[in-house]
Design a protein that fits this description.
single chain, mainly alpha, 12 helices, 69% helix
Length: 321
């Protein structure tokens, strides 16, 4: 097997597994750029995945057909946004410890979703498998381009391209619009932003809400492209990988997107290993833990050089500097 053949296998798998991480990491960027630490990304993905599984299942029964998974992405985005408001109220209005609130959000998400699965499906431990997914496709015309066509435009889900496009859009919003400037200002120096008439609390609520929207989409994308159904272990570490991608990307949309692709590559190895010489001889457990080992190595080597927004994790009290 040539190197090009290996890349033809790994790159499409990387794009597939990276999409949920990119969406969720971008959500984390919104929250932390506004000054609110959000380690509840795992919980937001769980809520999104659960919502996508349930909404797709019921939409299929209502006759929505192939549109079901796409509609479920919108429903999951709304569910993730609403669920994130718990973290916003506790962290911004009540000024509780943001790390503790994020941990509680993760635990609450798993508990609530598992309870609702049992409630909706007569005590079952998981949802039924959905019939319609967002399948991998060959992009007409582009997949025939020599060399790069099979790598980048063959057997890739549309959500992967959308994730990259959204990453570029988030960069433009944060760094090229007045809204982005205001959001970043309340994460760097909220008191100064307040004196200029910017509502710090409002901007932070928006930042956390957007993190929920993107986290919900990330979980939903994972469900409708990879998992197919929801149980307590469907989201098992992906949210923390997205959190690591955000930190590794230095709280920057482009950096988070690039780190998401890197961690997606690490995850894809466990999916494609049986098709690649040498990797197919490694024990499965090594490839399963590879993404998390790489996360530790990357963060240990680079996190000390990354500088978070200055007011990240610091509750704002009006009138205090």
């Amino acid at each position: 097997m040539s190197l090009l053949d290996v890349l033809d296998i790994i790159i499409p798998a990387t794009l597939l597994t990276a999409a949920p991480l990119i969406f969720t990491a971008l959500g984390g960027v919104f929250s932390e750029r506004s000054g609110v630490v959000n380690i509840g990304l795992e919980g937001l993905m769980a809520v999104g995945a659960f919502t996508a599984a349930v909404s797709t299942y019921f939409l299929e029964n209502l006759g929505a057909g192939a549109a079901s998974p796409w509609l479920s992405l919108l429903i999951a985005a709304a569910a993730g946004g609403l669920f994130s408001l718990i973290h916003a109220v506790v962290s911004i209005s009540f000024r509780a410890d943001q790390t503790v609130s994020g941990v509680a959000l993760n635990l609450l998400a798993v508990g609530v979703t598992v309870f609702l699965v049992k409630l909706f499906f007569e005590g079952a431990g998981q949802t039924p498998f959905i019939k319609h997914r967002i399948d991998k496709v060959d992009i007409p015309g582009l997949h025939s381009i020599p060399v790069i066509g099979p790598m980048l435009f063959s057997q890739v889900a549309w959500t992967s391209y959308i994730a990259i496009a959204i990453g570029l859009m988030v960069w433009a919003i944060l760094y090229k619009t007045p809204f982005g400037l205001r959001l970043r200002s309340v994460g760097e120096h909220p008191a100064a932003a307040d004196t200029l008439g910017i509502n710090v609390y409002k901007m932070r609520y928006i930042g956390v809400f957007l993190s929920g929207v993107f986290g919900g989409i990330g979980g939903a994308v994972y469900l409708v492209t990879i998992a197919g159904n929801y149980n307590a272990m469907t989201i098992s570490g992906q949210g923390f990988l997205a959190l690591a991608a955000m930190v590794f990307g230095k709280w920057h949309p482009a950096g988070a997107m690039g780190a998401g692709l890197f961690f997606g590559f690490a995850q894809s190895l466990s999916i494609t290993s049986q098709q690649i010489p040498l990797l197919d001889q490694l024990p499965d457990v090594i490839l399963l833990i590879a993404p998390y080992v790489l996360t530790l190595l990357v963060l240990a080597g680079f996190v000390g050089r990354a500088e978070a927004p200055k007011a990240d994790g610091v509750p704002y009290i009006k009138g205090q500097r």
